[in-house]
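Hi Y.,

Following your request, here is the sequence exactly as I used it, all 78 residues.
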Amino acid sequence: MSTASKRPGRRSEPVQRRGIDKVETILTSARSALSEPDADLSIRQLATDAGVSVGSIYRYFDSLESVIEAALAEHAQL
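Below is the corresponding structure, written out as tokens. Let me know if you'd prefer a different format.
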């Protein structure tokens, strides 16, 4: 079991490369959707845009709000 603390709003942190890539794809898709005027983002739409299942999003994030917060926080660090 990992001793690393998880970030707020995260259910778990990815360990394997494919999980890390999946989270980055989810966050990239969220940032892209949020950059659209009149963005109407839902978990289902985000999953479709990212090419992942809704369950994959909930595997790593508590809610749509936590995905948005993570996407904006990581974007601000760039």
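The CA atoms of residues 24 and 71 lie 9 Å apart.

Thanks again,
Q.
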